[in-house]
Amino acid sequence: MARIAFERLAHGYPGSGQYALKPMDMVWEDAGAYALLGPSGCGKTTLLNIVSGLLRPSEGRVLFDGADVTALPPERRNVAQVFQFPVVYDTMTVRENLAFPLRNRGIAARAANARVEHVAGLLGLARDLDRRARNLGADEKQKISLGRGLVRDDVAAILFDEPLTVIDPHLKWELRSRLKELHRQVPVTMIYVTHDQTEALTFADRVVVMSEGEVVQVGTPEALFDRPAHTFVGHFIGSPGMNLLPCAVAGREAVLEGGHRIALPRAYPALTGRIELGIRPEFATLARDGLPVALQRIEDLGRRRIARLELGGRPFAATLPEGMGVPPEPRLALDPARLHIYADGRLAEGEA
User: Fold this and answer.
1) Using an 8 Å Cβ cutoff, are 122 and 184 in contact?
2) Where do the domains of the chain lie?
3) Where is the ABC transporter domain (predicted)?
4) In terms of Cα–Cα distance, which of 293, 279, 268 is closest to 245?
5) How does pLDDT run across 247-281, given as a tens digit for each residue?
6) Do residues 318 and 284 touch, judged by C-beta distance below 8 A?
């Protein structure tokens, strides 16, 4: 297990003339469960490969428990990495595949077998232990790949690079739950790369949200939802994402395009740049009193209904309360405690 720290870490690929990973300072605590979340091309896998040693950063340092490992190859970092597509030995049985990393390290047969059977049970492979890997489907093979990463309890960290991509959709929730349970039982540092917000938020204690090579926020799933530090986080996390409306701010009041005035929970100094008011659809409701809006349509999502509106000529998503019909002249009510102000995409701090 290891505490992983980055000091002014950055990376640019030769000839690109720009950063694939912008300079950062960050710490991942020992035995934490972290997710790297963001769209394709945002730098997630680049950062993961720097941690594993597959890629040496062009700037900065990587520290494991205070020791500089920046120049060390993967085999000297004591990490396990699980890739997007399964890597298994087809001629071996499931048991032999899972035991392979333990045999290479001279673990006694009895201890290795106990560990293999424990991990196989957690991954739903107990009945397949004596089957040849070549006879298994892609789902089971990826479970073997996951198991080989999890079977060692002496690693500094386990790195998962979008490991559920090839897994059948109905099995993904089950495997995420099992990985979470294994982390509770064996507290090793785990880093999980994904573009899927559901995977990230259900697996990780802390989520690292990335956009265009930059870490824009690190926080718990609750913090990312309740208080996005960047408009990208508000948009990327949540379904639908956060509503963002251009506005002007004076003290404790926001003035939207069209002249609508909204009282704010905090007072703000003079702000410059692109100013936006943000609120999640969960905290905006269709009502009989409030701001005048134009209703476009109602989306029934089963557990809730979303009203698609126009407010001052801008698209807006709000919740339609359970049991409420559509008012003939719909209005919009906003929870004042859930309003946020952003300046050039960054959360502006006001005074309560």
Assistant:
1) no
2) 4-235, 244-347
3) 4-237
4) 279
5) 999 999 999 998 999 999 999 998 999 999 999 99
6) yes
Distance CA 108, CA 105 (A): 9
Query: Is the pTM higher than 0.85?
Result: yes
What tokens does 82 get? 């699980």
| Predicted local distance difference test score (pLDDT) of residue 325 | 82
- Contact present, 145 and 82 (Cβ < 8 Å): yes
- pLDDT of 301 > 90? The answer is no
- Please state which architecture CATH assigns to domain 4-235: 3-Layer(aba) Sandwich (3.40)
CA quadruple 339, 341, 342, 346: dihedral, nearest 10:
-80
- CA gyration radius for the chain? 24
The amino acid sitting at 276 is: E
Task: Return phi, psi of residue 137, to 5°.
Answer: -80, 180
pLDDT exceeds 80 at position 1: no
Pairing of strands 59-64, 190-194: unpaired
CA angle (113, 118, 124) in 5-degree steps: 120
Can you tell me which residue has the tokens 């690292």?
A: 208
Is pLDDT at 312 greater than 90 in this prediction? no
